[in-house]
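We close this part of the discussion by returning to an individual protein. Part of our work consisted of pairing the sequence of a single chain with a tokenised description of its backbone. No coordinates are needed to read the tokens, only the vocabulary itself. The amino acid sequence and the backbone structure tokens for this protein are reproduced below:
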Amino acid sequence: MQSFSGDQSPDKDVEMDLKIYETGPLTNKVLRTILERLSCQYTELVMTASEALLSENPNQNAEDQHEIVQAYLKALYLPLPRHSLRLAAMVGLADCLQTRHEEVGDPKDLKESITYRKGALLLCNEDSPERATIMNELAIGLKKWFDEQGGIEHLEMAASYYRQAFRSSFPGVTILKRSDILDNLSRCLLRLHREKDLVEDLEEAIHSLRTAVSLLPAQDSQRPFLLHNLALCLSTLYFREEKIEHLNESIQCIGEATSLYHPEELRRVDATNNLSGFLVTRYCQKREIQDLEKAIQYRRGIINIHPVGHPDRADILLGLSMSLCAWHRECGGYEELEEAIQNLKEVLFSFSSPSPDRLLALKSLGECLIARFDLEAKVQDLEDAIRSYREALLLHPSGSPTYASGLLNLSYSLLKKYKLQTSKTCDLDEAIQSVTEALSLCPLGHADRPDFLSHLANCLNERYKHCGDLQCLRDATQYSREALSLSPTGDPDSLHILLDLSRCLESLYYHNGIIENLKEAVEGIHKYINGTDSMHPNQCLALGLLASMYAKNTEVLKPFYNVTDVSSLFEKASNHPTASIRNRVAACKNWIDAVHGSSSLSAYQRFLDLADQYVLLTSSITSIHQLLRDVITHATALDAVAVAIECGEVKRAVELLEQGRTLLWSHLNRYQTPIHELHKVRPELAAEFTRLSQLLQNFATSKVLNDSPKLSAKEETSKYRKISENWQAVVEQIRQVDGFDTFLRPPQYSYLRLAARNGPVIIINVSAKRCDAIIVQLEGDPVSVSLPDTRVTDICDIADIFNRETRAANSNGLHILGVLRALWDDIVAPVVSKLQELNVTSGSRIWWCPTFFLSLLPIHAAGPHRGKKPNLCDIYISSYTPTLSALAELDQAGILVASGERQLDRDPRLLVVAQPNTPGQVHIPCIKEELSVIEKQVPDASILLSEKGTCGAVLRYLKTHDWVHFMCHGSKDLEEPFESCFRLHDNPLTLLDILRARRTDAQFAFLSACHSAGIDITAPDETIHLAAALHFTGFRSVIGTMYAMADIDGPIVAEVVYKHLFRRKEMGGAVDYRDSAEALQIAIKVLIEKGVPVERWINFVHFGA
């Protein structure tokens, strides 16, 4: 390239000349003035500049660019003979300066580029074909100057040049060029709209894009880009004016754009994401579920092409999660809720720094966790939601409306926590404080003020219930009325305020007795029921509230309303198809409280059915246990039994107790149901049932759902739900098979009575309504024995004394004797009397099935314990069973033995686990002696001693041995009972580990370890302990200990028990595990004869056959 000596600097002259150009057309006089200053020959310079322009060398360096610019500058100062050459030089110079600006970033280049384009424009005739192009490029330069340097006048001037460019374009200008000009104009106008907020700019932008789209053929490659931009402008106009036609057109445009983009084009992904967002927006306005469904479908599609780590993945996941959350609110989909929660956790991991996106994700996660808490009652979800809302508050601009909404979310979750644990008033106080602050940020006229007022009313109503402050109730009523008055008339979303007001008015009526308050409360509920869709989940709450008001105020409301359909209303509430099962359970509880006598049995039955469903929806047994502690209390089942007895329906009482007690074991037992008969008629169904049951049992007894990484929990939960649904479908198919219509339905008394094949089973039902014993026999009807001297409070007191004494280092035997005497006088003696009346002979076996805190007490040792008066152990041989079903199922093996179909072992395979020196535990000195007496009776026993007794080894040996004897430390976990364990050499063998080792032919287990049969006091009717776990896994007879045992008693009891069990072996007889209860009875008598204190010998108990 030719070089030019650049000492001359024509910039000032050029600037002066161009100012002349801008004053008017280029006249001969002006031209002569300029030409007088030019001294070089033009030909060489124009040729050099043209060559540089046409070279299109992408590797031009800064020096090359400088020479090109200098060439054009000198060309401009030559006496050009043709006007077109001068115009070309000026345009070329502007292009070069703009190119250099884009690469170097010097604003001076951009400014001069704009100046020269203006000069070029002055050289153009009105009909010049270059005029539109120059105006378009000039507008681009002005827009760029605004973007970099500011100045709204530059943006306005750019829009003006775009308009002129389009108007000056003529048929010679391509359609593509004209559409480009309109597209550029629309972008400029959209930016003007953001700067000046004038709707006219936005409307003109939309008009420009519509025109641009109309100019292009249907298949033109630029069409999807223009449609995409038009959709974005229309959505902006919608959010400004909220006219649905704008949103509809926006969805139509971007839908067409999505279909026209190439499948692998990045803008197609953006368009699909935008389309999803617009569909969600339309759903929020029109509530058409298909819009939400499509939005979720589209975002799920594009998330698959954005792997973990992709910079756009978190944004798309956030939008998808919010759509899923909305879907759950509308349709109640559990899988969608789980997916949203796991997605949001990933989003928060990606947006680790404070940002608006993290704020939105935190708020959405809080909402989803609250929704899952409402479904599953997991307190951890509530705690996590509160943490999310607290962090979100830190990210809100303080004092802003969004900060107010954050305070409301926090207050809402704190109120839920207070209702769960009403003793912690600090949660209620903080809830009131938060919503009060939020309300101060929402002045009159604010759209959210009604919701804030309504929630404050709820909080104050709860405070009134807690402390009885009438002013709180009056304020709550006033706030509810104000919230209702501020809500738009006919707005279905505000109808929930009617329920809040009705609750306040009902409380006010109970205080002042003004009937108008109660009538207004009832009318409010009627308005809500009639004003909302019958399938709305909150219909359950409204129906239950109305039924409760009718039930509590029947006489007062009878003249005004039909109050006779209370049970019908409660039944509708508890059966509502879209309400959460938690709310349906609550409605059932209110139904139970509202009705009495035989009419309440339907309510109790519905409650137990819902409890069963609730358990089925819960995957792991640890979650089920928490559910049973926090939501489904066994007291309701015990009350149901009391009512049935009161009504003379003793058989039904037995059935209700069986259905409502030990829900956890019943849940697991479903997956162990023997299906031998089904195999004969439908082997494929039997095989599928077995397969799915095994999968579900693996879930139930696994820690995976609790300990899995955040990103895999979604898949685990979804998998469980699908398997559970398939399992239930198979169960329904089995029930269609002839003879299997009752398969896995709550057992009838005709089956339960089989538990008494080898002796009567005595149920002791403890209820606040009444206490009774029920004697179940193989033949005849069950017999109830009233226990009028037994009260719940007495049982609690006795259990407290017993628990305290057995945990003390130096227990007082007199106190324990007092417990045994109280049990005898109030409970056992009346039962023994009835048994003798029923001709149950002395020395017979009997089984106890106690309820409530009686499960913690040694009923087997009850007696007068005075002189020579016989105690229970002198009259009958006592065992325990958690349920009648468990004993009935175990007895099937006894039937096979009795019939000769199964033979007892002459030499049972015994596994002995002995841990005298477990690492980290106190030495157990008597294990060696205990092991010696066992080896004497069972010389071929498999022994895992000390370091050989690892968890893995024990679990392997359990699969091949039908008898087991544990000699080790036992531990009861009061907080997590499923973590109760045997302390082995390497790791604890937990209750959950034992449950996984299911056997079908195991017989006998002796647990010479502390606390092996210690009941969980938080859910005593679930009988969760190590002995019960072994009993469930298939060991038909189990000996265990209720609390910490004395080491020196182990060898004595073991020697007597095994000697009795193997007494027939020397004569060639079989060893019968069913003799273990009698063997333990003999061993206890040996301890008594040796003068062992009462607190030591009553510790040993027997479970099962």
